Amino acid sequence: MGGGDDHEALCFAMRAAREPSLRLTILHLVPSDDDDDDMSDEVVLKEAMKGISGLANVRYEEHAVEDGPQTALLVREIANEHDLFVVGRRHGLDSKQTMGLTEWSEFPELGVVGDLLASPDLETKTSVLVVQQQKQVKK
What separation in angstroms does the CA of 7 have from each of 30, 63, 86, 131, 133? Predict the structure, then answer.
């Protein structure tokens, strides 16, 4: 996916990954038809990968998803594999990967993916940290 909040979440997770006892898995959800590429997302991801390329405790996974229901299914499958998810809030951003999920959102302030992970229907003990990029105030 992408956007400022996701970039901020990635930066936070990369800083945490400097601790060798922490294992980090970066999950990148991309549209299956690959026509929604945002160049700024690619630049941020490439920079992030350069910064962590030598770290044995970091793994990168790319998952192609068609729509929101497929994203929800993937989240359900992997929720119990991790202790903590760091996700961007992505408020007001729509993408093919989350299409249709906002209608089912119980906690919109967490963003679509944060809401999926915090849902009582998920039956997981994982923790969720939702990150929102700081807004710059114009003077």
Answer: 14, 17, 11, 9, 8
Which burial class, exposed, middle or buried, applies to 121 when counting CB atoms under 10 A from its CB (0-12, 13-18, 19+)? Answer: exposed
pTM across the whole model: 0.82
Query: Does any domain span residue 136?
Result: no
CATH number of the domain encompassing residue 48 = 3.40.50.620
Side chain identity at residue 44, one-letter code: V
Q: What is the pLDDT of residues 55-71, one digit of tens each?
A: 889 888 889 989 989 99
Cα-Cα-Cα-Cα dihedral of 27, 32, 35, 39, to 10°? 10
Dist CA 99 CA 102 (whole Å): 7
pLDDT band (50, 70, 90) for residue 72: very high
First CA to last CA distance, the chain: 31
Distance CA 38, CA 90 (A): 14
The reply to whether 85 falls in a domain is: yes
Structural domain including 102 reads: 4-131
Which amino acid is it at 64?
Answer: A
